[in-house]
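[Solved] Which block belongs to which protein?

Original post:
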Amino acid sequence: MATVPSSVQLKQILYLTDFSRASEAALTFALGIARVHGATIHALHVVTTPLETYPDSLKADREIAEAEMRQVDARLRGVAHDASVTHALDLFSGFERAIAEHGIDLVVIGTHGRTGAERLLLGSAAEEIFRRSPVPTMTVGPNAKREPADNGILDRILFATDLSPCSAAALPFAIALAKENHSRLLLLHALPKRRETGNGNGSKRELSVAEAFHQLHEMMPGSLTLPQSPDFAVEFGRPGDAILAAAEQRGACVIILGIRGAEGHLGVAAHLDRATAHKVVAHAPCPVLTVRA
């Protein structure tokens, strides 16, 4: 059963940009959250600097990045913000430094989410960030709607879980967001398709569905009162497909996943594996918010 915080702190947002179209799309969502929660946006571009980089080349890269960042700064007018370009040996070290410096509550990043061979997965930068980030990370893929609703983007929340402790770690965050935003919260579990067994009338499958529903209900704190009663759904099929279908059908504004970090197997809990995370982010009609266990 989840222990739910009284509120979710979304006051310091780190917006990572490489000035691509994917990053521009993510900025729209960062702005939506900042306006709803009264947050400050810290826009950051990291110029990676290999040891063999020549000073003149580094200076030119920085000047180009600073020119691009001035355009980002213009888009951020109207909300509390700062915009900066920094150097680091790699993207994550610059990102990590910014989180510590600003006390970041949420990271927002865009990704091209290129499909193709499953082994290619997400762009390495976006995946490295959300796998290693110590704070919740919102990844905006290419199919996410470009304009959030007037009342913010978190009014219909889809929390997908494989019922493991790892994925359940994100539930308190989902519940607190639903409470603060007066959101409709849907808890979803996907069961794999399999051949009927047992007495031939499907009783074993029905029992599995009943147990899955029971466990979903058990995840919610009994004394919790939400502005809108939560919904529960159990679907058959591959987890990625089930999550995407539910997000589309229910008009989800954000998908929340509890994930493992970058250590060992890069997986989203047991069957919400790395390929599922790729598929969801690459094709989701809304941002995907990941919370590390």
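(Second protein starts here: sequence line, then its structure tokens.)
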Amino acid sequence: MTTLDVLVRSVRLEADRIISLELVRPDGGGLPAWTPGAHIDLVLPSGRVRQYSLCGDPAQRLVYRIAVLREHRGRGGSAEIHDTALVGRVLACRPPRNHFELVDASRYVFVAGGIGVTPILPMINLVAAGARPWTCYYGGRSLRSMAFVEEVLAAGSSNVTLWPEDERGLLDLPGILAQADAGVAVYCCGPEGLLAGMEAVCAEADRVGQLHTERFAQPPEAARQAGSGPVTNCAFQVVLRRSGIELQVPADRTLLDVVQEAVPTILSDCREGYCGTCETKVVEGEPEHRDTVLSDAEKAGNQVMMICVGRSRTPTLVLDI
């Protein structure tokens, strides 16, 4: 999996517990292109790998901007970024990938909660530039905790409703959905409670197909299903095409563990199938998808898979590694 070096050019406080980082090429060259909704995998000084949505301008090819919320109950990545002097340091990152693409629609409703504004902001700017009708509901614990408020308002203040919880309570999800007619695409990103609530409201209104979400953690339903009983695993062979290596994956080991023994540079993070860091191209064979990253259409296409939880339905699986 290809990575590139990026230099941390600046760190800026954007809101309570949120900082932004600007990343550039050490040689000053251009960075790989990206589209709204994309994220990068950043390798921290400790070796941890974390995913961050790109929240700058896709037309600006010389700099990536990400924002990081300090998570009090996180796994250490956000604390490391907040507490480490990173300006001037060179880090490795994986080029942008996008599983939260902006679809073509007649109108858009954006719902952002807290740090979930990061993938939403470039979408708003793109839609506003194209003169498509849109509205945005941006919630947070308080105005002090909400990053990029001025940038969101600059895209079209009359289209934006700020919803600080300490002043207005929780977002009115049924009321927001009520304006989403058949041609409206609803994009939602934020904490799990917001996503689960929006999914429930859309399910009740029979509008699940209009909703597009991105998660920062494994959804509770997936966790419950994973723990509901034993999953039957079969042994299979994996061929790493670029490395010229053939490996046996026994029933009691993950594909990722076996591959990383042979190719230690393979990036991974969650090991539960929700972050997308270990996404790998499939050359031949039929993978057994067990992740919550890919859509049903993407899984049916069998072009990529998440090797931390995925296995193989065929005796041999050939990967582009």
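Accepted answer:
You had them paired correctly. Confirming on the second one: The chain has three domains: 4-97, 107-217, 236-319.
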